[in-house]
Amino acid sequence: MNEYADLLIIGAGPAGMAAALAAASSGARIVLLDDNPLPGGQIWRDGPQAKLPNPARQMRGRLEACSNIRRHSGTRVIACAGPKQLLVEDADRGWVIGYDKLILCTGARELLLPFPGWTLPGVTGAGGLQALIKGGLPVQDERIVIAGSGPLLLASAATAKHNGAQVLRIAEQACAAAVGGFAAQLPRWPNKLMQSVTLFDRHYRTGTYVLAALGNERLEGVRLQQQGKIVELECDRLACGFGLIPNTQLGQALGCELEGQAIAVDAWQTTRRADYYAAGECTGFGGSELALVEGAIAGHAAVGDLDSARALWPRRACWQGFANALNKAFTLDPQLKSLAQPDTLVCRCEDVPYAALAGHTDWREAKLASRCGMGACQSRVCGGTLQHLFGWQPAAPRPPFSPARIETLLCLDDTPPA
Amino acid sequence: MPELMLDGCALRVAEGTSVAAALALSGDGCTRTSVSGQRRAPLCGMGICQECRVTIDGRRRLACQTLCRDGMHVETQA
């Protein structure tokens, strides 16, 4: 079965939802695709241990009420099937979606940096732990250390505590001056000030980072560098993430240019390829408020409603200011590049240690020599790591972009040879 | 409340529970053994890292992005 959309939106987080709703009044046939079981992205992830905020519920309701928006959940993009055609797959089948315009709302993932013991069961990303708890992961009475960088650490801690965990430490790598300077700017965005007050935790420490996860078969404790001292804590879980990096792989595969680590866009959220737009975290980390307004601008622009798009520029500028302040405050300490030891695995799919990578000059050379980045995740984890550690820019991915079934790939070959 | 089979053991979970969470509710939460023999468990929680891949009703799926359904059969990799 094939399908056609006037507007195809990839990703149903805040940006994708806002884009679909903004474009809907035009009457365009819209398809909204997402690899999660429910819309909402990471920040509005639903589940038995999640509590969705009202705006998220309202947007979900409005999406369901729009007869010209078709939603495909649990669906991944596997390959480009031809000009303006994508091969996609869900749990049951593969098919091709043709489109006229496309909006990338592919979000961001956590930057995970390798340190000794980080592959032990019990170690997750910081946002990773929050997502798993929302999905029902039991953490009642567990002792948890949260480490890394950025406001996500506090949000993850709040979710863990709400579900009965004991958060022993929140280790923020940024120094007190940087975090304090950021907090002092918060009155410019009153709802963020309120959020930071409700999230504050007495176990929060600045200038603190993880040195090692300890344990044999499973995590048993963590060693931290805490404001110049080495501290060891026994714990059941360590949730560690060093901020967010934009998911640009699909954009790159579709020929959209990057600017730094993000998909480059203009004031209309148009990429440098005509008919391709991008909004939200894949254009640079900025939080859900920025993602919502960028998504709405992209949705309006994609259906030609430039006046409505332009009217949202001031709101975008306000939240871009917040994003800039955030990114400046939580700049990563160069010390974090030396956490991995020679035997620390960097590529978790192919189990490639740091020693097998240091000394190579680029991705391609390292890959050919070690199989780094050639496993199931297709370098989505170690690609970000190695870009941070060595400055190696990952190439555009080759299809299949995710592991796919043979039957799905066979959909590519439905035209008989001439 | 869906009831599913995890490595041959029956488990009843709350509606909307992910397979990744169900694995932690029924056992040690591990999903696979790496190429060098290490036990692994879900890492990113959001469909990126592929550490949580398991076999669900005969197909390879990500435990963190799959909701438990009544009658589902889940097998982890020993």
Strand-helix topology:
The complex is a heterodimer of chains A (418) and B (78).
Chain A: E1 2-10, H1 14-24, E2 30-33, H2 54-65, E3 69-72, E4 76-82, E5 85-89, E6 94-104, E7 108-110, E8 123-124, H3 126-134, E9 143-149, H4 152-162, E10 166-172, H5 176-185, H6 190-199, E11 204-205, E12 208-214, E13 221-226, E14 229-234, E15 237-242, E16 244-246, H7 249-253, E17 258-259, E18 262-263, E19 276-278, H8 288-302, H9 306-311, H10 313-329, E20 345-347, E21 352-353, H11 363-370, H12 382-390, H13 406-410
Parallel strand pairs in A: 1-2, 1-6, 2-3, 6-19, 8-15, 9-10, 9-15, 10-11
Antiparallel strand pairs in A: 4-5, 5-6, 7-16, 12-13, 13-14, 17-18, 20-21
Chain B: E1 3-6, E2 9-12, H1 19-26, E3 32-33, E4 39-40, E5 53-56, E6 59-62, E7 73-75
Parallel strand pairs in B: 1-7
Antiparallel strand pairs in B: 1-2, 3-4, 5-6, 5-7
Q: Which terms would index this structure?
A:
heterodimer; A: 418 residues; alpha/beta; FAD/NAD(P)-binding domain; 3 domains; 13 helices; 24% strand; globular; B: 78 residues; mainly beta; two-stranded antiparallel ribbon; 1 helix; 10% helix
Fold and architecture overview:
The complex is a heterodimer of chains A (418) and B (78). Chain A has 418 residues and is of the alpha/beta class. Chain A has three domains: 2-109 and 245-326, FAD/NAD(P)-binding domain; 112-242, FAD/NAD(P)-binding domain, CATH 3.50.50; 340-390. Chain A contains 13 helices and 21 strands. In chain A, strands 1, 2, 3, 4, 5, 6 and 19 form a seven-stranded mixed sheet that branches. In chain A, strands 8-15-9-10-11 form a five-stranded parallel sheet, with helices on one face. In chain A, strand 20 and strand 21 form a beta hairpin. Chain B is mainly beta and 78 residues long. Chain B has one domain (3-75): Beta-grasp domain (Ubiquitin-like (UB roll), Roll). Chain B has one helix and seven strands. In chain B, the strands form two sheets. Chain B has a five-stranded mixed sheet with strand order 2-1-7-5-6, covered by helices on one side. A two-stranded antiparallel sheet of chain B has the order 3-4. The A-B interface holds A 35-37, 42, 46-48, 74, 91, 109-110, 112, 119, 121-125, 127-132, 135-138, 217-218, 348-351, 375-377, 380-381, 403, 405 and B 13-18, 20-22, 24-25, 28-30, 34-36, 38-51, 53, 59-61, 64-67.
